[in-house]
Amino acid sequence: MTTESKNNEEELSAEQLADEIVQQAEEQVEEQHEHAVEAISPEQERINELELALAAAQSTVSDQKDSVIRAKAEVDNIRRRAAQDVEKARKFALEKFAGEMLTTVDNLERALQSIDKDDENNKGIIEGVELTLQGLITSLEKFGVKAVDPQDQPFNPELHQAMSMQEVPDVAPNTVIAVMQKGYELNGRLIRPAMVMVSKAAPSVDATA
Predict the structure, then answer these.
(1) Which domain holds residue 153?
(2) CATH of the domain at 192
(3) H helices then E strands: how many in the chain?
């Protein structure tokens, strides 16, 4: 036998040996796997099934819990908005009625201003008008109607309507110097601005003139 033939036989034997070792290892792994499968008892299989079912149920409960929380938040928002709407309706339901009553208040006040208070014959009329006016004002105040009378106060464009402006000595500019018609608020909401006359600054004098 030549040296080359001998080497080929040795290489072949080594390959066969390697193949046998791999095959034996695979057989051992397969055998261990079969033993492991056989080792799982029916009780363990049932436990595994229950654990999977429990995990699925927990996931479902978590999703449903989120849905319930979102639904509750939406209901709370609806209730809050409804309560706010009811409160607004309660506060301002009398706005139109109050506006009509203010015309009567204005007329009674004008009557008191125009009547001759020095005439004794008018004494009873004056008292009757004053009592009627005071009763009407008291009734309006019970329902949140409040007068805005800014005499001698700084002009506020959010509450007052300037009808004219006039220079007045020793009076700061932008001051209400006369109230032609009082304004009114309903529960803090302006329903009629006060009509006023406002002071203005005197024109600047050019020193070079």
Answers:
(1) 145-201
(2) 2.30.22.10
(3) 4, 6
